[in-house]
Amino acid sequence: MSETTNYFWTKKQADGTTRVGLNDTGIDDLGKINFADVPAVNTKLTESGPFISVEAEKAVSDLPSPVAGTISLVNPALSAGPEALNSGDSADRWLVDVK
Q1: DSSP category for residue 38
Q2: What is the pTM assigned to this prediction?
Q3: What digits encode the pLDDT tens for the residues 12-32?
């Protein structure tokens, strides 16, 4: 897992996709996430372009993408709400896989 310069980590998956998740700095700066608007599968991302919008206890922010590509998978746990993003384990705080 590698940290990026913003609130995200990235990890190359065995299938060649890149998993993107929220890192500890993101949680520390934003606080508890109450809402996250994550793009759908097949959404094209550009590096530093629009990615997700979050409402958290310390900030309401639109966060830029750390990678370019097309979203191939969205964390299914996020369909029930943003609770997974508040996990103490950063590996559980993954958002999307990008190819």
Answers
A1: P
A2: 0.91
A3: 999 999 999 999 999 999 999
Check: CB of residue 6 under 8 Å from CB of residue 52.
no
Question: Apex CA 37: angle with CA 31 and CA 38, to 5°?
Answer: 105
- Report the SS3 class of residue 28: helix
Specify burial of residue 92 (Cβ count, 10 A radius: 0-12, 13-18, 19+): middle
**Domains of the chain: which residue ranges?**
2-98
pLDDT at 88: 87
Whole-number Cα distances in Å, 66 to 26, 48, 78, 80 = 13, 6, 19, 24
Residue numbers in the chain where pLDDT is lower than 50: none
Domain 2-98 classified CATH 3.30.450.20? no
